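QA checklist item 7 of 12: single-chain prediction sanity check.
[x] sequence parsed
[x] length recorded as 472
[x] structure emitted
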Amino acid sequence: MYIPFLIIMGYMVLLVVIAVLSNKYFRKKGSAAEFLLAGKSLPTFLVMAMVAGTAIGGTGTLGISENAYTNGLSAMWYNIAWALGILFFALAVSRKLKQTNITTTSQIFIQLFSRFDGAVSCMVQIVILFCINALQAIAGGAILAAILPHFFTLESGIVVSSVIFVAIALLGGYFGATTTNALNVFMIYLGVIVGCVAAVSHYGGMPQIVSSLPVGDQWFNLVKGMGPALIAGWVISMVVQAPPNQGLIQATAAAKDTKSANRGLIIAAVLLIPIGFFCALIGIIAAAELPGLASAKTAFPSLMSSLNPWVAGFALAGLWSADVSTATSMILGVSAVATRDVIVRIFRPDMTDKNQLIASKIIILLCGVFGALAALNISSILGFMMKIIIVFVPYSYLLLCALYCPKLIRKSSCTVTVLTNLAVMAMWLVFPATHIVSDMIYLCLPATLVAAAVCIIFDKRPVDTSVMYAGT
């Protein structure tokens, strides 16, 4: 009981210490740009660490195990879809964005469209990043409560996880977050693989585990459990959400050059797939050996808690570190968008750099507090994640057109496509009769394209995309 507790508590302290020391000894202090972008100096390795850590997260570990507990190996398609999205970003977006001074998603729409469109984009980005941070708090709380029930409830686990998220972001800034993510990615791999191998050994090997599974042919089928339509929806959704994703844009902006950004992105994408496989396998083992869990969310931590305490401690430290890696990126993303694109650009364009730094740290604190509160009201990690990323659909279309084919967008395109997409999402969530397809993306994507076509036909005002490259 005490060994896993000491391992996880020690790991928490280590992360905060690394964040503080890396910020103190390797980065200059006192600059908002340094704090939020690491001085645009990240090498390939740290870009990889930040992107991989951002993408894996609680959804790519705990969420996959949760789904695999009932649907089998096909749950790993979430990470495959994420990997494809990152690869698409690396090949189609990263090089182009690195030629600009853009550091947040919202800057693109502020520059290209109206002040209203920019403000809406800021709010959308903040809400999405905030919600993803809340998901990591849920996952962190579930892990701590499952492995250390004598020390944590779900609620107290959420609070402790949120405190660590905020401490790393607040004390380490973006550079501190990237250095802790390097350790997190290592721990994720170590913990997940060691935990999976130990679980297979503990329960008598794979033949014994397979014989204990509930009846069904979905367990080791790469498609059947989740179904081809839902899997295709995941792939489309993750590829579509990648171009305007603040985590990917911020990592690209923070890279020291284009080559470092692209290499880091591609390596990160490759690293996602094995983790998805092992987490899905852990969910399957839990289904065989721990049937009837009160919540499938606890499949991974509950299985680990049945193993040797040293193995359980390191496995769950790795799992918990996945939440940290994503959460710190999301919190810093909220801070960057809120400070640079809302406070400075809209309300206080004359704000000093010192005050920007103070504002960004206050926003980090607020994000942590309200993220923990929101975490208590989210029911399904993976399901919720796949709903909120649909908001990215029109922004992805607009960004890709701005980079490659400006003739396909007009001054009204942002407002019309975003409102259309939000209206379709609202109908899907409120009226079950609209569920004529298996996933929301199959309605939102064509609706967005139709709205964009209407703008092309009736609005003849072109968009000047040269402003994206001004000052480079």
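[x] summary fact logged: The mean pLDDT is 86.
[ ] second reviewer sign-off
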